[in-house]
Amino acid sequence: MLHGIELILNQVLMVLFPIWTYHLLFQKKGSRQRFKPMLVLVLTISLLLTLTFSINYYDTFYFDLKMVPIIIAFLYGSNPCGLLIIGITVVYKIIFNDDPPLITVINFGIISGLLILVAKKFRTYSDFKKIFLISTLYGLITITRGILLVYTNHSQEIGIVFTFSFITWLTLLSAMFIFENMNKQMELELKVQRAEKFDVVGQLAASVAHEVRNPMTAVRGFLQLMSDDKNLTESQRRYIHISMEELDHSQVILSEYLSLAKPATTDLKILNLKADLENIIELMRSFTNLQTISIVSSLEDRLLIKGDSSEIKQVFVNLLKNSIEAIGEKGEIMVSAYQNGKYVIVEIEDNGQGMSETQLKYLGTPFYSTKDKGTGVGLSLCYKIVHSMKGTISVRSKQGKGTRFTIQFPSV
User: Fold this and answer.
1) β-bridge mates for residue 340, sequence order
2) Cβ(280)–Cβ(313) under 8 Å?
3) Are 205 and 260 within 8 A, CB to CB?
4) Which entry of 58, 67, 147, 334 is 20 to 30 Å from 8 by CA?
5) What is the torsional sign of CA 48, 96, 90, 167?
6) pLDDT for 326-348, tens place per residue?
7) If DSSP codes are grouped into helix, strand and coil, which group holds residue 205?
8) Which pTM value belongs to this model?
């Protein structure tokens, strides 16, 4: 009995220890990559260890924790990561365990299909939904094993199979807890870093902006007076006009910096987001009149959130302007807003030029812009406003295909 428990604990350790090592040493590197080589390497080590040192019972069946690295690869890596781990599993079982090739490929093909479907929505779920989803999925796998045992006249082994499946389920939840905990720590670190950057920008803006604005206003006033002089040549008037335009542009930049310096709004009111979005979309359509860009909207009727109407306008005007600029001359912007449980979701999707993985990584940080003449302040301000309303912004983009911003607000 003690020897059996020792073997089971060794299996658990062989799976969880490499995962802990991955998070301690490699998780912060390339966290947005589609394919994660270090994660695949670690999960491969776990997989090979658990398959090599599997527990034999009744001289016919083997117990191992291979499903843990397989499921983790799909849910916390990507489909390519998961398919590679599945491929390694199939090859190992055919070569070393003498499993029937066709049945093995079919079984793991079905598992791959289920996990690919689950992984699409998994990252958007709450912790409870994630646990429920994975528990249900693994429960179905366990039930099919039980049915197979009955069908092959091995019903006396159902008890031990369910016991081993329960241990596998606990190990899987432990691995999920490790990933979820570390991901939350990374998100917290990013928020702290972003808050520090905003604080630096705020101090800089508060200490410099007003002092700079005073001489700029005086210069613009004198330029305005000079432009009324009838003795000026046409080229002199043009130079004065250009100078005044550049001063106005500088004033806009200073205003953006001052907006970052302002404390977050605390006097939030209950708003119907649909009404605000309709006004903003109507306003932005005027910017697309000269271009062949259409804005299509799909808004649910009752979308109640707590917020400030002027700041909401600032966020969505900025995001829509970015979409218009990303498209250029011809394209479509889709704006959809809907209720999803306790949250109101707004999605803004365009078919513009899109962004690279590197651009996505730094998006929303002060002074970073994907535009040649951008200041990197407008989008930073959007993030700050949304976070002050207890919301989140997520971005999906692919170069040449377009970008989708997903903004999530707590519902009232």
Assistant:
1) 343
2) yes
3) yes
4) 147
5) negative
6) 887 788 899 999 998 889 999 99
7) helix
8) 0.57
